[in-house]
């Protein structure tokens, strides 16, 4: 079992049972006592559990986090995309996220990386987002400064939209923007379901030095209502290795690089 999957399983156990002992980690996951203690220490550093003598107990947020982790981390495609995207972020940059399950996964991976990489403690890394759930995930990370736009909330995507969401954008610069989408049309561009979401995403894109569309391969076979931007408006697309070869070739031919994670 990969370490990330084991950490997720331990976190889920604690969320359901309230506590876990070192002996239970050893027995359930077949690891050494030293590895069990390191796993619990890592989860405690991520604020998912609170370490106790001989084990760990649930942190105030741990009943919530593993459920959302499960929805994203159990998708190998999205996890691969998240790791590829997070590797592009440098400590000290300003990183923006739109709403969506893939961007949420990237934000969570960034939070984990920031908590374990000493450079993030030395350089202020700012996260700008209009997604309430992403801000909620990262606000507990002392290595990251979180800026949440204003606006009216959309329940389906947890995104803030409208004039208030755009009001602060003229005053900021973004180094890297990770843009989640509902559909990819290699000829026309990138789409989302609602025009209000498309409007705020396009506004953030305008303030970004580099922007990447992040989407799993199913988005190539999907359609959606509102156009966000054209293929040439972004620095590239990060998707998984199952993406349709013809669609990938079309994007590349249109001048849009594609990273297969």
Automatic annotation (TrEMBL):
UniProt entry tagged with the keyword Ribosomal protein: no
SUPFAM superfamilies found in the cross-reference section: NagB/RpiA/CoA transferase-like, Winged helix' DNA-binding domain
Protein name in UniProt: Glycerol-3-phosphate regulon repressor, DeoR family
UniProt keyword terms in alphabetical order: DNA-binding, Transcription, Transcription regulation
One Pfam family recorded for the sequence: DeoRC
The organism's taxonomic lineage, starting at the top: Bacteria, Bacillati, Actinomycetota, Actinomycetes, Micrococcales
Domain HTH deoR-type intervals: 3-58
Species annotation: Serinibacter arcticus
Entry GO MF terms: DNA binding; DNA-binding transcription factor activity
Domain of life: Bacteria
UniProt keyword annotation of DNA-binding present: yes
PROSITE patterns referenced in this protein's UniProt entry, alphabetically: HTH_DEOR_1 (PS00894), HTH_DEOR_2 (PS51000)
């Amino acid at each position: 079992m990969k370490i990330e999957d084991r950490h997720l399983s331990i976190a889920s156990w604690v969320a359901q049972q309230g506590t876990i002992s070192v002996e239970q980690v050893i027995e359930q996951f077949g690891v050494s006592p030293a590895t069990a203690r390191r796993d619990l220490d890592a989860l405690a550093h991520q604020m998912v559990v609170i370490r106790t003598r001989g084990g760990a107990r649930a942190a105030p947020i741990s009943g919530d986090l593993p459920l959302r982790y499960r929805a994203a981390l159990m998708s190998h495609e999205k996890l691969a995309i998240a790791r590829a995207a997070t590797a592009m972020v440098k400590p000290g940059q300003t990183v923006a996220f739109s709403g969506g399950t893939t961007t949420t996964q990237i934000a969570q991976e960034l939070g984990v990386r920031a908590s374990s990489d000493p450079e993030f403690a030395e350089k202020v890394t700012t996260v700008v987002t209009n997604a309430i759930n992403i801000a909620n995930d990262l606000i507990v990370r002392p290595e990251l400064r979180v800026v949440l736009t204003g606006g009216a909330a959309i329940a389906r995507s947890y995104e803030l939209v409208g004039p208030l969401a755009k009001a602060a954008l003229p005053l900021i610069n973004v180094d890297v923007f990770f843009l989640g989408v509902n559909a990819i049309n290699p000829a026309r561009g990138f789409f989302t379901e609602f025009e209000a979401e498309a409007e705020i995403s396009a506004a953030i894109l305008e303030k970004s030095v580099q922007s990447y569309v992040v989407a799993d391969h199913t988005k190539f076979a999907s359609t959606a209502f509102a156009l966000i931007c054209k293929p040439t408006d972004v620095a590239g697309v990060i998707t998984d290795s199952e993406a349709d070869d013809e669609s990938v070739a079309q994007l590349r031919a249109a001048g849009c690089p594609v990273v297969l994670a």
